[in-house]
Amino acid sequence: MRAGEIIDRCRTLAVLSEIPDGLLRTFLSPPMRQLHGLLREWMEAAGMRTAIDAAGNLRGLYPSSAETPRRLLIGSHVDTVPYAGAFDGVLGVLLAIALVDALGGRRLPFSIEVVAFSDEEGIRFGAPFLGSRALAGALDAALLGRRDADGISVEEAIRAFGLDPAALPEARLSRGVFAYIEFHIEQGPVLESLGLPLGVVTSIAGLSRLSVTFRGQANHAGTTPMHLRRDALAAAARWISLVDRYARATPRLAATVGALDVRPGAANIIPGEVRASLDVRHPDDAVRQRSTAVLLDDARRIAARCGVAAEWQSHVDLAATACDPWLVAALGRAVSAAGYPVHRMPSGAGHDAMILAWRIPAAMLFLRSPGGISHHPDETVHAADVEAALAAGAALLADLEQRQA
Ligand SMILES: [Zn+2]
Description:
The chain has helices spanning 3-13, 30-45, 90-102, 130-135, 141-144, 154-160, 190-194, 232-249, 285-305, 325-337, 352-356, 383-404; strands spanning 49-52, 58-62, 71-77, 111-117, 177-185, 198-204, 206-215, 219-220, 254-256, 260-263, 269-270, 273-282, 309-318, 321-322, 344-347, 362-367. It is α+β, with helices and mostly antiparallel strands. It folds into 2 domains: 3-205 and 321-404, Zn peptidases (Aminopeptidase), CATH 3.40.630.10; 206-318, Alpha-Beta Plaits (2-Layer Sandwich). The chain binds zinc ion.
């Protein structure tokens, strides 16, 4: 399978959306079922047996040459952010299928399992990595009880999709899995700026995600004098500009308020309540945690000055993750054997590899993101870079085969 066909498949899957005017595909939503149908066909055509686990991950197994528990996992996610591009996540799954397809039925001394994770972005339930957490045995009762905007819990969503939450333990990694590899677009401008097609990921930055709620008093916008208002949005706005200023002044810190829920949300009512998201990332966990604490303290201080209350809830607190040194070296050899320069780099974005790394050696290969654009419909990928990733992937399989034979 050539790069053009992989790209076409990504574009085909990008049509499967919950919204009419763009791509949105969340955990166990109706278009996810259509996507499973197509991916299953492609996996089976490449010689894999397919199944959907209790967390809605589609898993394709390509058997080994001899009876052995040794298994290599290759995967990425197939859920998306709202108004997403066609390649974030999905490309990694299609590259994995293409690598198996390229074996043409030839068996390796280990089996290969391709995983299409049901949730990485965390859009529907405000908690990311639901799919990979199931493999790590970390989809716990608190997560299963989380509810979406319609009040449906993760557990109920699993049942509604026709799956059985009681079978979640069976979704866990099998004992013989020796490594997890993920191909993913870089989602940033670094590789493009260096003129390189591929990047070997050495570490993944830690991540804090919270919601901060400002509570004031909703009231008539015409009759309430300015000095007697308790405007939750005015307080939130002051805090948000401070978040931006603080992050700019702190080296390598990325802090974002990306979503605001303003209530009641009418032009003639003073906002009584604002819920703001806060996303904080830094390669150093201590700096990330210290910065988050400072920003929350600022929220409380600014709120008090505006006569409103501020409180928060933490949704994600993930430590920075180092990729497995042996796998990083193997990926480096593979990229080099395929004839491409080896560039090692950290990932600023979170990925399923972070969760798998709790249990097994994990590493990632980035593909250049043209224009550095991702989480946007203009997200794309160069066909030549997809060819490079395929060649590196094939070289990696050959390297692992040699060392395991
Ligand atoms: Zn992604």
